[in-house]
Amino acid sequence: MSENIQIDISQTTSDEDILEKKDGAIIANMPGRTSDGEKAKKDDYKVSRIKSVVAWTIAGFFAMIWLILTLTPFFFMIMNSFRKQFDMLQQGVFHLPDPWYFQNYVEVVTHGFFGYFFRSVIVVAISLVLMLIISSFAAYPLSRMKFKLNGFIYATIVAMMSVPMHVTLIPIFKLTTSVGLYDSLWSLIGPYVAFALPMSVFILTAFMKTIPREVEESAEIDGCNRYQNFFMMILPLSKSGLSTLAIYNGVSMWNEFAFANTFLISPGNKTLPLALGQFKGEHSLNIPINMAVLTLSVLPMIILFIIFQDKLVKGMMAGAVKG
Predict the structure, then answer these.
(1) What per-residue confidence (pLDDT) applies to 244?
(2) Predicted pLDDT at 315
(3) In angstroms, rounded to a whole number, what is the distance separating the alpha carbons of residues 34 and 64?
(4) Which residues of the chain are modeled with pLDDT < 70?
(5) For residue range 85-140, what is the model confidence (pLDDT) as tens digits?
(6) Using omega within 30 degrees of 0 as the cis cutoff, is the peptide bond preceding 198 cis?
(7) Is 127 helix (H, G, I), strand (E, B) or coil?
(8) How far apart are CA 161 and CA 171, in angstroms?
(9) Rounded Cα gap, residues 165 and 120, in angstroms
(10) Phi and psi of 32, rounded to 5°?
(11) Distance, CA of 191 to CA of 24 (rounded, Å)
(12) Cβ(210)–Cβ(201) under 8 Å?
């Protein structure tokens, strides 16, 4: 009898608890009635929303300032390339040309600009092909194979990144003259490739480490050897990294001046960075023509960067994460 009473009491208590929970849920779901937890969540959401808006506003403000500072030199260069020689003294340098003078570009194009342009293309193209081949051959064993000197070789290559390029100008000049390459385009290709290799091997090694080893294991099961793995599997999967290196090093090779000015003396061998010297007068300087030369010189690099900027960012991020 007592057990039945206890059971009835426990059942009554549980029923009351259920009714109280249901009543609480009904009250919480009633219009205009919210629980403390939901109110706290809404308050936190509003605070986080305000912080996000403020952060994006500040970021957008500084981005606009950086954009203005970056575009100002290009605006100055392009606007002044359409002026006559002495219009800069009569008009403001940031004033729109009045009238627009297109003869500067005609004079630049008709006075050997494309010769300088194609010589630069030849030097940069050959240098990039050699650099990509050598760096990929070096990065593959450093990233995929284990041997005793792996760490030492990799550390030595990375240490070479700290050597300034122009410190070696005199030794390379003596070496170039002794082997008979002075005043030829080949005198630039060697130094360009050599100084691009440390950074290229560093980035490409980090990029190849991101490729899963299961890819090679599956290829080995299908009968591929090391060479086939490299050429058929690893190299195609490293296209983003190779594109990053091509753009990154191509820009520096395209704009390099010191080695070109030292090793090239004949007008028929000079590259595009030396073209400015051919468009200045003996006793005066025609600034608008020089601005036209600069505009035509930077235009190919800007176009290539716009086309391949996604590959550049992807490759650099891969190297940053794994390096």
Answers:
(1) 83
(2) 60
(3) 43
(4) 1-37, 280-284, 311-323
(5) 777 777 777 778 878 888 888 888 888 888 899 999 999 999 999 999 999 999 99
(6) no
(7) helix
(8) 18
(9) 19
(10) 85, 0
(11) 79
(12) no
Query: Which residue from 191, 197, 199 is spatially nearest to 258, judged by alpha carbons?
Result: 191
Sequence letter at residue 320 = A
Q: What pLDDT score does 28 carry?
A: 46
Residue 209: both structure tokens together: 């480490």
> From residue 175, how far is each of 166, 193, 260 by CA, in Å?
15, 16, 15
Side-chain half-sphere CA neighbours of 284 within 13 A: 6
Q: How many CB atoms lie within 10 A of CB 211?
A: 17
Could you tell me which of 166, 196, 173, 187 has the C-alpha nearest to residue 119? Answer: 187
What is the pTM assigned to this prediction? 0.74
Q: Would you list the DSSP string of 249-296?
A: HHHHHHH--HHHHHH--STTT--GGGGGGGGS-SS---HHHHHHHHHH
Q: Give the span between the Cα atoms of 36 and 156, in whole angstroms.
A: 62
Q: Which tokens in the block code for residue 167?
A: 């410190």
d(CA 135, CA 196): 9
Closest to 108 (Cα-Cα) out of 247, 260, 258, 299: 299
Chain-centroid distance, C-alpha 229? 28
CA 262, 268, 269, 273 dihedral sign is positive
> What is residue 97's DSSP assignment?
P
Instruction: Please report the beta strands in the chain, taking only residues with DSSP state E, as ranges in sequence order.
Output: none
What the block records as the tokens of 30 is 């009633």
Taking alpha carbons only, the member of 293, 287, 315 closest to residue 206 is 315
Q: Could you count the other beta carbons within 10 Å of the beta carbon of residue 143?
A: 21
In this structure, is the dihedral angle defined by the CA atoms of residues 93, 99, 100 and 103, taken in order, positive or negative?
Answer: negative
Helix, strand, coil: what percent of the chain each, to 5?
80, 0, 20
Contact between 128 and 250 under an 8 Å Cβ cutoff? The reply is: yes
Question: How far is the C-alpha of 298 from the C-alpha of 293, rounded, in Å?
Answer: 9
Please say whether the dihedral angle defined by the alpha carbons of residues 124, 130, 132 and 138, taken in this order, is positive or negative: negative
Number of neighbouring beta carbons within 10 Å of residue 58? 10
